[in-house]
């Protein structure tokens, strides 16, 4: 075999390999998209049937499984409250943990321990966090089932996601920017608040939204902590609430077509809420980014 | 406003590694002092010890004395933040804050340190940008992001940001090494203008630049790889470049090594 030297055209073998890999990449992309599209197709197709004003403004109080009508207002309110409360707990703790790990930990013993437990928390199945809150909050401390108990369980699931994503984003902030700020005589904490966090803001928002999207669809922990109700309960601190995942779970179990239609619409509503929240986060990120002002 | 810096028997460490050893020198006010020497000889490390930026790196520490007029910068109860406010720094690569506009970048040092009215800030920003020879280029787009400027403009923006807090000393760590000749010229002009008011210390790899802008030049060298860097000699720039006292300085300047 002779070694080819000089400039020559691409060999047929390399062309074929290139084509082959290209086809593989397209195929795997299609394979990944098919489930997504089919889920969307099914949920939208089946959910639109009951996606009306009654559904969005009425609860299931005094509505039997076979009755038409009824809605998920109580579940929408519950989900929004629970996710909001969970975020209020998990985002500050998660963000501060990430700031500690990146800015103050310096790879010391404490930061390695925290890192390890964040990893462990990432792997905790959602039902376990529900069981923990059930055992600790409801059985030992004697609290009632409530939206807040659910929020506690959800915040356990959110926290590691927030920590990890915020940590990644903070590490991406160039060290030169911190030095530039120190060199101006700015104390470390102000540098973090005024330079590091704003620089990582867009990424942190995206990470928080991923965490929200993840917990918004959790059913198992809510089942153990929020319980289920057919009535509107706007107070997340007192008594059973509803949540959209619970609503879907509850309605889908009932053996009538009217209930199953409601379950589909509940799923559609949940997807729309998560999408809406994502959109809002994008808008905030866009509004805060310097690129908006044109460069 | 400009003050003298006096360094005596200064050692700097990264963990257990001694990066520079036994450096003593006096840096005169209202003049430009250039540090030259081969890579890794500790010029930048030494520069960073002058405003306590060295200790920002985990494990880094300093032994010895640095005095600004009659104040010991490494005294027991000296706040490093206040040292950095008094002794400003410009870095090798332009590093404007990416989330801030041109105006906010220049105002950053003031804004992050206290409360100022909009009109006060506007005055300082205009003065600083004029001081950095950048005002005419950016006065119509102060609200645009600082990261949208060219490299040379960004570096002058960083100089404007550094002088906006009115430091007494300005340290520059190879401020032109990432810039083209025209931007370099602009910065060098700026340096000769700034030395009327500030004590300026500049680290450079460009010997012509040291010869052009500085009044005094210090030559750093290290005996061997892994050994700490030392100050070989320091004298009037004209003397260093024409008739240095040490053989090593002559060899370096004439390009025989480094």
Q: How many helical stretches of chain B?
A: 10
The figure for the number of domains of chain A is 1
CATH topology tier name of chain A: MetI-like fold
Major pleated sheet of chain A: none
- Percent strand of chain B equals 25-35%
Principal-axis shape of chain B: globular
Helix content percent band of chain A: over 70%
Biggest protein-protein contact in the assembly: A-B, 28 and 35 residues
In the CATH hierarchy, the third-tier topology of chain B is known as: Rossmann fold
> How many helical stretches of chain A?
11
Which architecture of chain A would the CATH scheme give at its second level? Orthogonal Bundle
Q: Summarize model confidence as the mean pLDDT of chain B.
A: 90
Please identify, by name, the CATH architecture of chain B: 3-Layer(aba) Sandwich
Radius of gyration of chain A: 25 Å
Helix share bin of chain B = 25-40%
Radius of gyration of chain B: 18 Å
Largest sheet of chain B: 6 strands, mixed
Task: Please give a handful of descriptors for the protein shown.
heterodimer; A: 295 residues; mainly alpha; 0% strand; B: 258 residues; alpha/beta; Rossmann fold; six-stranded mixed β-sheet; four-stranded antiparallel β-sheet; 35% helix
């Amino acid at each position: 075999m002779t070694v080819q030297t000089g400039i020559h055209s691409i060999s047929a073998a390399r062309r074929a390999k290139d084509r082959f890999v290209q086809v593989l990449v397209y195929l795997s992309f299609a394979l990944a998209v098919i489930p997504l599209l089919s889920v969307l197709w099914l949920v939208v197709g089946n959910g639109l049937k009951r996606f009306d004003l009654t559904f969005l403004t009425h609860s299931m109080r005094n509505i039997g499984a076979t009755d038409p009508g009824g809605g998920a207002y109580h579940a929408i309110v519950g989900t929004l409250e629970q996710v909001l409360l969970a975020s209020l707990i998990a985002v500050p703790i998660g963000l501060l943990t990430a700031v500690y790990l990146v800015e103050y930990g310096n790879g010391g013993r404490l930061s390695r321990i925290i890192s390890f437990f964040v990893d462990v928390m990432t792997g905790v199945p959602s039902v376990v966090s529900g069981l923990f809150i059930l055992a600790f909050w409801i059985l030992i401390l004697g609290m009632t089932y409530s939206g807040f108990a659910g929020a506690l369980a959800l915040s356990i699931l959110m926290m590691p996601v927030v920590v990890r994503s915020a940590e990644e984003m903070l590490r991406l902030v160039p060290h030169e920017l911190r030095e530039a700020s120190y060199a101006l005589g700015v104390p470390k904490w102000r540098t973090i608040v005024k330079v590091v966090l704003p620089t990582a803001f867009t990424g942190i928002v995206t990470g928080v939204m991923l965490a929200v999207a993840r917990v918004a669809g959790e059913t198992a922990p809510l089942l153990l902590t929020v319980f289920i109700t057919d009535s509107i309960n706007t107070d997340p601190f007192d008594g059973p609430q509803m949540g959209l995942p619970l609503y879907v779970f509850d309605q889908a179990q009932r053996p009538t077509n009217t209930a199953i239609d409601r379950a589909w619409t509940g799923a559609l509503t949940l997807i729309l809420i998560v999408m809406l929240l994502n959109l809002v986060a994008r808008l905030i990120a866009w509004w805060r980014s310097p690129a908006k002002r044109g460069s | 406003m400009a003050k003298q810096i006096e360094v005596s028997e200064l050692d700097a460490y990264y963990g257990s590694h001694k990066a520079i050893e036994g450096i003593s020198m006096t840096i005169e006010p209202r003049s430009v002092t250039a540090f030259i020497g081969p890579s890794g000889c500790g010029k930048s490390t030494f520069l960073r010890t002058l405003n306590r930026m060295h200790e920002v790196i985990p494990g880094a520490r300093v032994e010895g004395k640095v005095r600004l007029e009659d104040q010991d910068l490494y005294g027991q109860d000296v706040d490093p933040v206040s040292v950095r406010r008094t002794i400003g720094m410009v870095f090798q690569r332009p590093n404007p804050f990416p989330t801030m506009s041109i105006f906010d970048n220049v105002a950053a040092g003031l804004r992050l340190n206290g409360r100022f009215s909009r009109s006060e800030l506007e005055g300082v920003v205009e003065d600083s940008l004029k001081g950095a020879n950048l005002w005419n280029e950016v006065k119509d787009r102060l609200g645009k992001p600082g990261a949208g400027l060219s490299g040379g403009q960004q570096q002058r923006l960083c100089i404007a940001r550094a002088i906006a807090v009115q430091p007494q000393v300005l340290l520059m760590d190879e401020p032109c090494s990432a810039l083209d000749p025209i931007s370099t010229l602009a910065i060098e002009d700026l340096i000769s203008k700034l030395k009327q008011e500030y004590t300026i210390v500049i680290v450079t790899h460009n010997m012509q630049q040291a010869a052009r802008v500085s009044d005094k030049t210090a030559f750093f060298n290290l005996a061997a790889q892994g050994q700490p860097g030392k100050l070989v000699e320091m004298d009037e720039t004209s003397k260093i470049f024409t008739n240095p006292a040490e053989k090593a300085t002559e060899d370096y300047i004439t390009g025989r090594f480094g």
